[in-house]
Amino acid sequence: xxxxxxxxxxxxxxxxxxxxxxxxxxxxxxxxxxxxxxxxxxxxxxxxxxxxxxxxxxxxxxxxxxxxxxxxxxxxxxxxxxxxxxxxxxxxxxxxxxxxxxxxxxxxxxxxxxxxxxxxxxxxxxxxxxxxxxxxxxxxxxxxxxxxxxxxxxxxxxxxxxxxxxxxxxxxxxxxxxxxxxxxxxxxxxxxxxxxxxxxxxxxxxxxx
Length: 209
Description:
Number of strands: 14
Order of helices and strands: EEEHEEEHEEEEEHEEE
Distance between the termini: 38 Å
Helix content: under 10%
Shape: globular
């Protein structure tokens, strides 16, 4: 969880989720940023469900996350992503990792406006080796915010379970049959292999919307 400022408009919490197949944004944050949602009908298999044709709202946001560096994010809109997580004390981590700047590992509370998954893997945490690991606690690097994020567990740091909303929990494992961000395109329905949660090559049908 990293606190960031998006442009000069708003601060929000970004949840870095290596277990998610797609990235999410709340409709609330998208409206604040002035993003126009693009509705689409897509065949989607959500976690624990059979493939179904769904109405999906996509947002595209170019994030200038560091000087001279930007990333175009393709985001699925939903409200909310999580309940408001509360801050917790990570002071023990600063004693274990004295090379990390004061405040860089702080865990903030508030609303999660953005979730970054494996489709934005270049922005997910990396590292956690050498002096950045003590026992089961590690410090990883991210290219935005404070530049650091804490991972793992430690007996002096409270373990907090992420309070996902029901919809966000399902969307974290979403498999898209054809992810085109234009509601006028042909929506293809390939067979979605439920045993391995991958998209197979055979096309079962085709519908135009």
